[in-house]
Amino acid sequence: MIKKVLIANRGEIACRIVKAAKKLGIKTVAIYSHADEAALHVELADEAVCLETDSEKSSLQNTYLNSQKIIDIAKQVHADAIHPGYGFLSEQAQFAQQCVSSGLIFIGPPATVIKLMGSKDAAKEVVEKIGVPVLPGYHGENQETDFLLKQAEHIGFPVLLKAAGGGGGKGMRIVSNAIEFASELAAAKRESLSSFNCDKIILEKYLSHPRHIEIQIAADEQGHVVHLFERDCSIQRRYQKVIEEAPVEDLSTSLREKLYEAAIAIAKHIAYVGVGTIECLVEADHFYFMEMNTRLQVEHPVTELITQQDLVEWQFIIANKQALPLVQTEIKRRGYAIEARLCAEDPLQQYLPSSGKISHLVWPMGVRVDAGVRQGDTVSMHYDSLLAKIIAWGETRAEAVSVLAKAIDDIEIVGITTNRELIKNLLALPDYHEAKLSTQFIPQHVESLFLTRKTDWHHVLPLASLYLLHTHRSFQNAPWSQLLGFRLNQLPESVFYFYADQALSLIVTQLSAWETPLENVQYEIKSPLFDHAVRVTALSVRIVRQASATWGVISAMLNDIFYEAKILKLENKLHIFCRGWHDVIQEKMDFLVLVQETDNACIRAPIPGTIVAILVKEGDIVNKGQPLLVMEAMKMEHTISAMQAGTVSQLRYKVRDQVEEGAEMMRIDTDGHTQDS
Hints:
- By secondary structure, this protein is α+β, with helices and mostly antiparallel strands.
- Helices cover 25% and strands 32% of the residues.
- It has an eight-stranded antiparallel sheet. Strands 24-25-26-27-28-29-30-31 form an eight-stranded antiparallel β-barrel.
């Protein structure tokens, strides 16, 4: 029986495994890089061991992907088993075999099965033999560009390039025509090599509007195989899932049963042992096998909520060579569950990763939150952008959507940019409520999802001014100790200045006397931004001063409309959380605002990362919007383009150089060029 497990992972999934192991009375060992020294998974585990010495160069290859070092640590701490989580080494057959050869239990399927199903081409050949339909494509060994182009033309554009050695959207590209094939293939190979240490690419016919549906299966060493129903993972961006749900509401009974039968048939045919997922594309009433994930999925919580089963606990039971906890007829489903992935990225900037310190964080109540970070943590550029999974349950799908939408509104996070507003907008779309889902859902709703929201100053400014007024007064003994705007025989006035893309001012006139507690005080607020004065009644104000920040909860009527807001002051910025939105304004003592001029000629690094490709050379003439170089950060590639037409005058870095955020990478001089194509 497993008594101590080393978790060969980090972040949210490492925390999830710790909690499941502790429930079973299993001791846990965390591993960490220098960047993760203060991480949550390190704190939660019973023991923790650093993967690198001070003299070593920090890298994935030297830390979470260093299989021999991880096995050596497991043996040093006398662990019985290694749980790989997902990502990193979880689908590396060689690592699974190394564990077994070292006398350790690998919590996952046999190495032979991982190798077979980890090769997308071999996996498709296997399932075809047992009659499971697959998409037309090329899965062979010839990786010459010209040869692959001919195969793509034979399949018919558009085609999908996929990394043969892994998943998660890395190494995947849609190619629409022969002209862009070579460049997209090169990018897919680079990303595949970086993520999976293998640059083999397979080709598939690209379906325009399929649904991505997967079946959760589990199998033990006694030969029992069961399914735990299906999940819809169609809502994706760049082939990475954003929203997942279970079960799929509108599948026909016949198609649902075919999917279950296919999943179990595949698992039995390959002698699968462990928890795994069969992923399929579904279009109309037809399905096609896509791949098998021989590990726990990121989205496993939705299955857990509808079945009331702990899949990580099942993994430990199977690894202990015990029979599955339930037979098929005993596995019941109840209600609906939906999961949203909260990631450190900016959807409005082509999902550019965000890194930095989380200075304020509040998770929502009433839902399941699987998180890998907490307030005060620093999000690193070195790892995946996933921060947490927010999972809601309801008796009906509509109820689950409503619960999740409320939970997303209640998230408060300051210090990094996230995709929270994208999720919020997505959950509000009528097509999502009607379950009109496909892998093209996000591209089809770009106009609704990616609108740049304009701040409603008519509620933000009055709420901010109330906060400042009552912050001053809450920590004074009498109204005479705060004389801002006092005028003899006239109503007391206060003037506030703010800055948020522009200078903002407002005059607050107090219309009624204030008492303690600060309730039902009336004001009139004027600003050059307002057509008319805003009449305000502060119904209740609660101010709390802490060591790191001051915050307040304000309930007020603004022109007869009720608002409730939480306002946090960090340094000289006010963060206003109200009605599910997060607005930020800067408190100013006057109108002196220094605005830095934008230098379009200077191409700066928008994030810290590594340069993986430079697409121009000094002296080249480029057009506005033309790709200049490719950076890698958070395990994904990001293309940097020219902001103006001109001539490349300076290249300051070379391929494989690491650059810091804001570093000047090259210059584009106009030289009279006016092209704007």
